[in-house]
Structure formats: structure tokens, C-alpha cells
Amino acid sequence: MTKEKVLGFTAFQNWITTLQASLKRQSFTTHTFAEDHYFLRWIKIQAFDEFEIKGVKRVLFIKLFAEVTTDNNEYLPGVVFLRGGSVAILMIVRPTDAPLERYVIMTEQARVAAGSLSFMEIPAGILDDERNIKLAALREIQEEVGIFPKADELIDMTKLAVQDHKVSESIQSAMYPSPGGCDEFITIYLWEKELDRLDIENLKDRLTGDRAAMEKITVRLLEYEKLVAVGGRDGKTLAAWSLYEYLKRIHPELLLEHERP
């Protein structure tokens, strides 16, 4: 691992920029740490993983330790696993002949980190250095589900949910599943449409996945009412469900306008 590779890793760039900006805010007299500032002293790269993607070797994950202390030797936990941002999509389909019926498109795939070969979750994926998060979401839908929605059919539920609560730091308008040890932030979209029943049936048990990313995915169709029972082990699924139910109460007009084809 070289300094150039670390500095060129998008996840590291985003993390260090955000952290440094937050540390500078301690100079404000109203800041919690205004009387005893924390400083980033040094960073130690402890481990990393590189993978060849489309013929190019790239860093995808870094584990580091950041020494963040005050002059009085007070410290903040600094173990960080860098992997960057992700997207997840709650995909709800309704048969045109029975629009009150709701089904959720799920993916079943191996997740070695969870010790599982058949983990159920909503479609999701890492950003791969993409700046346009919505395009990344569209790519994941195409690769994992095999359908091709339009960009304007996707609703950023995380952004809508937090838009009325402004924060002073430059953190993402997204969901952080494990901020105590990982930088990952997940933008969660909604795609809700009415489709012909035959088209919905054709989605069942479809085999998909990006071979270059070593993915083997089976598409599953689930009744909406069973979403939490089946997908409750997956943080993205639980977050998507809670956002959807919340926004249906707070901003129902923003969700309804994209339902029909």
C-alpha cells in the first residue's frame, strides 16, 4: 500500500475531508468541545483489500486507526473500516388488475460475512467511485433484478426524511448503519410501480448478478406485509421499510406521484 493509493481512494478522501471539517468546527464557542479541542494526530493503515475490476486493480476496503486526542490526552475511538457509500432500493410492485396488492422485490444471495449462502435483502450495492448516486442505484437494479426503470422514477427516501433537520457538519443525507466503526453511508431509494400481473410473475426466481463482481443472485417476490418478518435481519431492509412507512404519513404526495406507469 502506498500513500498515493490511500489518498486516491474515494472513501478515504470523503472520510478525511468530513472529519477535518468537523474538527475545525470546535473553534466555535458553542461547540461541545470548544474548551478542550480534539486533534487528528496520525493515521495508521492496518489492512487493505485490492480487487481487479474490469482489468483495473483498485482498493475497495481499508482498515485504519486514527489517533484523535486532546492536549489533555482525552481520546476518541479511532478504529475505522473504510468502504465508502452504498445504495439500496425498496422496490414495490402492484398488479394493474389489483392495485391494492403490494409485493416487494427481494434478492437472495450468499453473504459470507454473515455466514450465509441465502441471505434475503433488498437490492443494493457499493458506489464504485460513482458521483451520481441515482445512476448507481439504476445500475444495481439492472444487474440484480434485470429490469430498467427510469431515473425520475426513483425517490430518495433518506433525503426526504432528513430534509427538515439540518446538521452543521458535512455528513451525508443518508443512513449510516454502523457509524461507531465504519464510514459506510447508504442512500435508500423507493421505486413503486403498477405492472401487469404477468410481468410481476416473470420476476419470480429469476437468476441474476454481475459475474465480474462474483455475484449469484436469485430474485424473490414477497408480499409487502411479510417484509419485516423475512427481511428483518437486514439493516437496509428495515431502514427502507421504516422510511417508507414514515414518509407515507408525512409526505404521501411525494410517494404517490411515481406509482403509476
List the helices and strands and how they pair.
Layout lengths: L2 H6 L1 H15 L14 E15 L2 E14 L5 E2 L2 E4 L3 E10 L7 E9 L4 E6 L2 E3 L6 H12 L10 E2 H6 L23 E10 L1 H5 L5 E2 L8 E7 L3 H5 L3 H16 L1 H5 L5
Parallel strand pairs: 5-10
Antiparallel strand pairs: 1-2, 2-3, 2-4, 5-6, 5-8, 6-7, 6-12, 9-10, 11-12
**Low-confidence regions:** none
- CATH topology annotation of the largest domain: Nucleoside Triphosphate Pyrophosphohydrolase
Largest β sheet strand count, sense and barrel closure: 8 strands, mixed
Give the strand content. Answer: 25-35%
Task: Provide a count of the helices.
Answer: 8
Folded structure, characterized:
With 261 residues, the protein is α+β, with helices and mostly antiparallel strands. The chain has 2 domains: 3-82, no CATH class; 86-256, Nucleoside Triphosphate Pyrophosphohydrolase. It is 27% helix and 32% strand. It is built from 8 helices and 12 strands. It has helices at residues 3-8, 10-24, 133-144, 157-162, 197-201, 227-231, 235-250, 252-256; strands at residues 39-53, 56-69, 75-76, 79-82, 86-95, 103-111, 116-121, 124-126, 155-156, 186-195, 207-208, 217-223. The strands form 2 sheets. Strands 5, 6, 7, 8, 9, 10, 11 and 12 form an 8-stranded mixed beta sheet that branches. The radius of gyration is 21 Å and the shape is globular.
